[in-house]
Protein: RNA polymerase sigma factor, sigma-70 family
Organism: Mesorhizobium australicum
Amino acid sequence: MPVSGGFAPASQAKSLSHLEAARPVRSGEDHGAALSDRALAERFNDVVLPHLGDALALARWLTGNAADAEDVVQDACIKAHAGISGYAGGNARAWLLTIVRNTSYTWMARNRPRGMMAVGDLGDLDDMAAAHGTSLPDEDGPEASLIARADTAALEAAIAALPQPFRETLVLRDINGLSYREIAAMLDVPMGTVMSRLARARGLLASELGRAP
């Protein structure tokens, strides 16, 4: 049940162009180092650049602000470039989005200390989600149908109003398209927790959209 990432094409293209131009490039001191840098740059281009749209979408939903999302993704790209030599293969998008998620929370802790969720709140939300059930969320049920028919502006507002753990799980699954297993690894939680958070997020979303005029 994919939903919109929330970026207008022109705005996203401008953001991607800005971020690609800002990616770090190092020059080698000798011919051997230059070849090594070239190989790292090629790996960065192959691994990171194709997924900048997903990175911006995730950062935007986590920070709630397109300009802040660009700052976060630029920081994440610097970290990805610094760590690209250690990239061991696998799902490049999940690897980059993990960096973006961690960078988002670091950025918000530094710039919005009062807006961060208290640790105790997360347990309460997981208890609430567990009560909703841990069965595989219904991709074709009435909640999914209501969300699919929703007005874009109303949908974006409803997603933005979700508690942070529910919102990030919904975004990672329904916007970024990661698997339950990939999300569980990224969030360092059991897969059942991912499913219960997603089910609860979709339920809250459908409830909010059902009240919309």
